[in-house]
Amino acid sequence: MIPDGRMVLALIGRTPNKDYCIYQLLKKSLQDMLAEEDIYSFDLPLYHPNTSELYAIIEYEASFHIDRLETFHINWDMRDEDEIIKSGESSGKFIVKIVRAAMESLLASHFENTCMDKIFERYVMQATEQLSRTKIDGFNIVVSLTRKYNN
């Protein structure tokens, strides 16, 4: 990237005071359904930084100035109440469909493809139970960066 070039990154992050992530429910579902040695042989390469960590990484790398950093929360089930009632589909099931679309091929390539339906059915139960206690929302970070001049 040329000096003074700009880059905008959009990331899934986590709030500093909340360690909860939708993928923890997937982990719990896998633990409920699979042998321990199978789970430990699987590595999901995801990391969701909080804003302090992101600032520290950018500062440490030292190639960019942070022009602007904004955060926002999103509801994992972005449907309005009328839509939820019409569909008859729980928010837990809707959220799991989103995660399944992104994760199923990765999981199926490591675990047997035959158990995917059972794992995701369990995941729906976990998500629905969690939603009965607390809202599941996402935390996104958008950062605008400018490349520094090399001295």
From TrEMBL:
Record-linked Pfam families: Methyltransf_7
Leader sequence residues: none
GO molecular function per UniProt: metal ion binding; methyltransferase activity
UniProt keywords, alphabetically: Magnesium, Metal-binding, Methyltransferase, Transferase
Gene3D superfamilies: Methyltransferase, alpha-helical capping domain (1.10.1200.270)
Biological processes, Gene Ontology terms: methylation
Keyword S-adenosyl-L-methionine attributed: no
Top-level taxon in the UniProt lineage: Eukaryota
Similarity remark: Belongs to the methyltransferase superfamily. Type-7 methyltransferase family.
Protein name: SAM dependent carboxyl methyltransferase
Species name: Heracleum sosnowskyi
